[in-house]
Amino acid sequence: MERTRLRDGFTLTFMLVTLEVLMEKRPFDIGLALERIEEAVRPWPKAALFQLAEEGYTSTFEQLLACIISIRTYDEVTLPVSRTLFARARLPAEVAQLSWEELDGLISPSTFHERKAHQILAIAQQVDAQFGATLPGDRDVLLSFAGVGPKCANLVLGVACGTPVISVDVHVHRVTGRWGYIKASTPEKALSALEAKLPEQYWIDINRLLVPFGKHICTGNRPRCSTCPVLEMCKQVGVTAHR
Known about the structure:
Number of domains: 2
Strand order of the largest sheet: 1-2
Number of helices: 13
Number of strands: 2
Shape: elongated
Strand content: under 5%
CATH superfamily of the largest domain: Hypothetical protein, domain 2
Largest sheet: 2 strands, antiparallel
CATH architecture of the largest domain: Orthogonal Bundle
CATH class of the largest domain: Mainly Alpha
Structural class: mainly alpha
Distance between the termini: 18 Å
CATH topology of the largest domain: Endonuclease III, domain 1
């Protein structure tokens, strides 16, 4: 049975009884799911911080600056902006010596660049004064910087230091909830739920894989369920229309 309706000139078809509903879902195997997703996202660009790490920007300080640049900014912007900044200055002392005007100009394509320039400059000066050339991979230290929250700190520690931590962004929150793997109303609650359920060996990979997976396959609107490699396990929570 079908029901169709018009919305903004487009016809959306809603199946009241679909194959996905009729099909008995198999128990969710997170290891198998991530293995399949690894292959599925291979054609797509990597998440920004992981891509920068592959290019050699692996220090805690570099990853922290790239994470700040990435806030409310698309990866397609974060990557070239971060490369531009690091071509000019990579060490805390080098960044600390930049004027606010020059730093703001270097990162200006990113969202809220004026505020980020103040933040980056203050962090660089503090790191240079307290730690010299090497920012330690310490969560408490990262969280002590103004504007650095748990998501950013965890992502930096995972990418730069290999510390087993989970970074929950909008994609990780949405996808794991859609799977029915966890139930959480906010990214903060999703972090706690994942820490309680997700095997530690996948804590870093969950962000590395679900960011491109969430951007290109398990999208916010009309996810591509027909080509999803984990459809047989996914409960499709909240999905009313898909491709």
